[in-house]
Amino acid sequence: VQFVESGGGLVQPGGSLRLSCAASGFTFSNYAMTWFRQAPGKEREIVAVISRAGDNVVYRDTVKGRFIMTRDDNKSTVYLQMNSLKPEDTAVYYCKAAWPKGDERGDVWGQGTQVTVSS
After folding, report:
1. Among 19, 21, 5, 35, which Cα is nearest to 85's?
2. Tens-place pLDDT, residues 57-72
């Protein structure tokens, strides 16, 4: 199992970024997918979750209306379009499959991609 996140960078407040996460080593279409983020000194938090079919996405309140999560099962990739970025969005962003509870694959994380929102 592997997750490779990309697309992060330095952006000014109000700007946009599109993150990608390429997954491998499992049947991608069988699992909901999750974007997480971890800011310095804070715990990792869920940003958005997309259903297996891609027809339902749940966002944390602080990103609703600004972020859009999508998936492409043909490419085993999930995306996070981030608009109207704020300094508080600064964090390392990760993706992971929504494994069943107790699944040992839950210990596998990618390297993440750094997003920095600053003027």
Report:
1. 19
2. 999 999 999 999 999 9
